[in-house]
Write a structure and sequence with these properties.
The chain is of the alpha+beta class. The chain has a domain of 171 residues. The strands form 3 sheets. It has a 5-stranded antiparallel sheet with strand order 1-2-3-4-5, covered by helices on one side. Strands 7-6-8-11 form a 4-stranded antiparallel sheet, covered by helices on one side. A two-stranded antiparallel sheet has the order 9-10. The longest helix has 56 residues.
């Protein structure tokens, strides 16, 4: 009888089993919740890194095109203009490299297009954002194997979801929003962003400046920059330095009274005995 009771007491009851299952389910729900939040945060961070990486790659590609076509010694021009396209800052950049060839009469004065690259953004109604395109044409084709036979090269989509694409020229201390001159600017600043539009501090709608990736590309960075070094001698005033120790003061002497003045060397000299 006692042996039967000991067996009965060592078993789990239905209530204990239900309690264990409820605790296990609560722990499982908590673990899944933490895992879900960590996974969502990881996806957000990866998307952010990927977005910044895409912006950096686009800016790097535009900088490489400018460095290659606007090299010194070539007949190169850079033209760009900005506009508002359905509330978005949109721009068009045209890089042209020309040469002079023979015309029908055999004269060497006909201007031909050696290489042309165009970057432009246009409104995409499907996604309600801008889409960035790149076009490459001219005699110097990028793909030497396939080449191109068409007079109008296609515009290749580079990125979708662009919300800001703007170019500015830096000429001295002036910042210009368009450049149509035959001469080359000193530098070109490119700004691109994929961040959504917001209401700015001035009440307008746009992309905040901290959400825009900028890059300034110097034109002909090997050029000589004239400058003049002016040597200037800095002289200290002839006034007495309050931090300078006088010859009559002992720097190692510690006065008994911290409020008392430091005695000079003349005061510390013992009086001579009178003869």
């Amino acid at each position: 009888m006692n042996h039967h009771n000991e067996k009965f007491k060592s078993a789990f009851t239905l209530v204990e089993t239900i309690v264990v299952l409820m605790l296990a389910s609560l722990i499982l729900v908590a673990v899944l919740g933490v895992y879900g939040r960590m996974r969502a945060n990881a996806v957000t961070i990866l998307d952010r890194l990927q977005q910044n990486r895409l912006q950096a790659e686009i800016l790097q590609k535009i900088a490489e095109d400018i460095d290659r076509l606007a090299a010194p010694g070539f007949e190169a021009t850079i033209n760009f203009q900005n506009k508002l396209d359905n509330g978005y800052r949109s721009a068009q950049l045209v890089l042209l490299n020309s040469y002079y060839g023979n015309d029908d009469k055999g004269k060497n004065n006909k201007k031909e297009t050696y290489e042309k690259i165009e970057w432009r953004s246009s409104y995409d109604p499907q996604h309600d954002t801008l889409k960035l395109y790149r076009m490459h044409g001219g005699l110097n084709v990028e793909d030497k194997v396939l080449g191109t036979d068409s007079d109008q090269p296609p515009y290749i989509p580079v990125a979708a979801g662009v919300t800001h694409f703007e170019l500015k020229a830096q000429q001295g201390e002036n910042i210009l929003g368009a450049w149509t001159s035959e001469t080359l600017p000193k530098a070109v600043r490119i700004g691109i962003s994929f961040a959504p539009l917001q209401e700015l501090d001035d009440g307008s709608i746009g992309v905040p400046e901290e959400e825009i990736s900028f890059r300034t590309v110097a034109i002909d960075r090997t050029r000589l920059i004239p400058y003049q070094f002016i040597k200037k001698k800095f002289e200290l005033p002839d006034e007495e330095d309050p931090n300078e120790l006088s010859d009559d003061t002992d720097p190692n002497a510690v006065p008994d009274d911290p409020n008392a003045l430091v005695e000079t060397k003349a005061d510390n000299e013992p009086e001579s005995d009178e003869e």
